[in-house]
Amino acid sequence: MPRSQKNDNFIDKTFTVLADILLQILPTTKREREAFTYYRDGMSAQSEGEYAEALRSYYEAMRLEVDSYDRSYILYNIGLTHTSNGKHARALEYYFQAPERNSFLPQAFNNMAVICHHRGEQAINQGNLEISEAWFDQAAEYWKQAIAPSPGNYIEAQNWLKITGRFSSFN
């Protein structure tokens, strides 16, 4: 039985039932249904903190999924999982790939910015102001990309850009 069918949470169960109905109604191939099942299992494992299991499911979903748009969300969730594991460099690899397949994925740019900002703070703590500024500049560029398609989102990032004087170069 797929992991997603084992959920005890009412909302998860409802989502699973609706997703299963949609998969039966919509014209999908067996491969697409399998990819979605692995993706859903990955999300379920991830939400429970079972990151190794989530990654296994996401990698299997990537192997099966051929649609570029759907692959973008799998890549994004792989990035989230690596972020949760503290593997920021690895997470960035997946966050970079997601918008290449789906240009409207501002959350990937936001997460890249958060990691760069974190690295900037680490550089400050290590006394390396020059490196910290480079990381902050990179964070600013990613936040601008996150904000551009959805200006009402990422208000804290917008405030940080204004406070640090990086908003003036916002396109």
UniProtKB/TrEMBL annotation:
Q: Which GO terms describe its biological process?
A: photosynthesis
* Protein name stated in the entry: Photosystem I assembly protein Ycf3
- As recorded in UniProt, coiled-coil segments are none
- State the membrane topology: Peripheral membrane protein
What PROSITE patterns does the database record attribute to this sequence?
TPR
Q: Which HAMAP family match?
A: Ycf3
Mapped TPR repeat ranges: 35-68, 35-68, 72-105, 120-153
Q: Which protein family is named in the record?
A: Belongs to the Ycf3 family.
Entry keyword Thylakoid: yes
Q: Which InterPro entries match?
A: PSI_Ycf3_assembly, TPR-like_helical_dom_sf, TPR_rpt
The protein's location, in the record's own words, is: Plastid, Chloroplast thylakoid membrane
SUPFAM superfamilies assigned: TPR-like
Identify one Gene Ontology CC term for this UniProt entry: chloroplast thylakoid membrane
User: What is the recorded function of this protein according to its Swiss-Prot or TrEMBL entry?
Assistant: Seems to be required for the assembly of the photosystem I complex.
Alphabetized, the UniProt keywords read: Chloroplast, Membrane, Photosynthesis, Plastid, Repeat, Thylakoid, TPR repeat
